[in-house]
Design goal:
The chain is α/β, with parallel strands linked by helices. It has one domain. Strands 1, 3, 4, 6, 7, 8, 9 and 10 form an 8-stranded mixed beta sheet that branches. Strands 2-5 form a two-stranded antiparallel sheet. Helix 6 packs across helix 9.
Length: 248
């Protein structure tokens, strides 16, 4: 089972001062070439602070993000699941997972980064700033990632739960098959159509992934996942075709 997460624009500083970015240590070596292209374009753009700030839509208080991008090859790294912050990752709270839960995350969680493509939970990465809609010189992130990421996901066996935002799905759609589903977080008042959530969408996804990691069950099918969710007290139901509704 694969749990596919979006990244967060906010990152935690610090990490291992003795470990610098090494692309050979990242999951899915087939993505090394596009990673090099994205890194080169990002570092080139960061040579001009004003240009990079405009490309990343950074305000005056966010200039440290340009510095981060200038130091991609020399700054310390930390496991991806601990690098990202924000609502989803705060709810997942990777640092407090049990040993078994963290091991499950290592083997079953991927994060979709605009800079690195698909990265594993324990892949060591530096702090950076690049979003799905960032404008890099002579490099379209959609053209760079869409085909290669889709190929990785198409070759993945078993259940794929896609918890990414639509903007990241556009950078590499998962295959349409019975064992693949997009997870939507919705509210259900019982007196009308279900309503998709915004802030609580991220919180709900983070809490859901944490529960899945702690349960440490590699579900062989969507039906298996749905049966387990009932016993676990999670309201997870089939929604539109290819979708699962996580009702919170």
């Amino acid at each position: 089972m694969l749990l596919l997460l979006p990244p967060s624009e906010t990152k935690r500083d610090g990490g291992d001062d003795d470990a610098r970015l090494d692309l050979s240590r990242l999951s899915h070596p087939s993505l090394t070439a596009p990673r090099r292209s994205a890194l080169a374009a990002t570092r080139a753009l960061s040579s001009n602070r004003a240009t990079m700030a405009a490309a990343l839509k950074l305000g005056a208080s966010q200039q440290f993000e340009v510095t981060r991008n200038r130091q991609l090859r020399s700054s310390p790294t930390t496991p991806a699941l601990e690098r990202y912050t924000g609502v989803l990752f705060d709810a997942l709270d990777a640092r407090t997972l049990s040993t078994a839960g963290r091991a499950f995350a290592r083997d079953h969680v991927l994060i979709h980064s605009a800079l690195f493509g698909l990265i594993g939970a324990d892949d060591p990465i530096p702090a950076y700033r690049l979003s799905h809609d960032s404008k890099l010189p002579e490099l379209s992130l959609k053209k760079l990632w869409r085909g290669s990421i889709s190929a990785v996901l198409a070759s993945t066996e078993g259940v794929i739960l896609d918890l990414r935002s639509e903007s990241y799905v556009e950078l590499g759609p998962a295959p349409s098959k019975p064992t693949s589903a997009v997870v939507r977080v919705v509210s259900d008042s019982g007196s009308g159509p279900r309503r998709a959530l915004n802030h609580f969408n991220k919180k709900g996804k983070g809490e859901f992934v944490r529960i899945l990691c702690e349960a440490a069950i590699d579900h062989p099918s969507i039906d298996s996942l749905l049966e387990w969710s009932v016993a676990a007290g999670i309201r997870l139901e089939r929604g539109a075709e290819g979708e699962l509704d996580l009702v919170v």
